[in-house]
Amino acid sequence: MNSNRIIDHPVLGSFEDRPIIRFTFDGKEYEGFQGETIAAALLANGVRTLRVHEESGSPRGIYCNIGHCFECRVTVNNQSNTRACMTEIKEHMRIESGKLQPAPLKSEAGSAHLPRTYAAFAEKHPTRKDGDLDV
Amino acid sequence: MEDIIICRCEEVTLQHITETATKYKCSAREVKLRTRAGMGFCGGRTCRPAIDTALATITGETPGHDIPLKVSPPIRPVSLAVLGGKSNE
Ligand code: FES
């Protein structure tokens, strides 16, 4: 269980045994030590991807590890947007990764070609003026 | 190099920022509004120095307080539940 942990550190000393905490991540059971954060416990279990970007689906994990960037946000016991790097694991915690979300404005139905800025709109409709509603 | 992601929350690349700043000859704030760089979940607290630095290189704009990129309080994102008095547990 300790293969991914630093168990002997020149400054922090040696890793003392602590009670084992069991939790689930996306339905799968994992074990960590009391006092570890979700991010640390999962990393020690070899899990680096905590969520995917909602729109593109590219994988995300720990980035700052100090609670600043929210890159590590997961859902903990139904509480969404919880930072994995700031939250201690507790017995029977249910953790869910962040998933890809539907992006209706970027579908293939042609909406991707809608102008996304005023400048693009003006380029597309040079004769329209501000306030014309029948776009 | 150019496909380096500057804003992770909104996945905005250095290339996108460079193209926008060059095409519209605009301020860091306008780049933010056009590309969404710095408008994501973290509130721009992570990528703001990178955007400022990129703009300093591209347009020569030095980060100032006249038309800033705009960072507003609170210092960190908090949920409405916390603002309403619920504990942060
Ligand atoms: S990794 Fe940055 S907030 Fe958790």
Helix content of chain A: 10-25%
Beta-strand content estimate of chain B:
5-15%
The CATH C-level name of one domain in chain A is Alpha Beta
What do we call the CATH homologous superfamily of one domain in chain A?
Answer: 2Fe-2S iron-sulphur cluster binding domain, sarcosine oxidase, alpha subunit, N-terminal domain
How much of the sequence of chain A is in beta strands? 15-25%
Helix-and-strand structural type of chain A: alpha+beta
The rounded distance between the terminal residues' Cα atoms of chain A is 61 Å
Helix-strand pattern of chain B, N to C?
EEHHHH
**DSSP helical segment count of chain B:** 4
Task: Considering the chains and any ligands shown, give keywords for the structure.
heterodimer; A: 135 residues; alpha+beta; 10% helix; B: 89 residues; mainly alpha; two-stranded antiparallel sheet; 4 helices; 2 strands; 6% strand; elongated
Task: Summarize the structure in words.
The complex is a heterodimer of chains A (135) and B (89). By secondary structure, chain A is α+β, with helices and mostly antiparallel strands. Helices cover 10% and strands 24% of the residues of chain A. Chain A has a domain at 8-96: Ubiquitin-like (UB roll) (Roll), CATH 3.10.20. Chain A contains two helices and nine strands; from the N terminus they run ββββαβββββα. In chain A, strand 1 and strand 2 form a beta hairpin. The longest helix of chain A has 7 residues, at 38-44. Chain B is mostly helical. Chain B has one domain (5-83). In chain B, 38% of the residues lie in helices and 6% in strands. A two-stranded antiparallel ribbon of chain B has the order 1-2. In chain B, helix 1 packs across helix 2 and helix 1 crosses helix 3. Chain B starts with a strand and ends in a 6-residue tail after the last helix. Chains A and B meet through loops of A and loops of B. The structure holds FE2/S2 (inorganic) cluster (FES). FE2/S2 (inorganic) cluster (FES) binds next to loops of chain A.
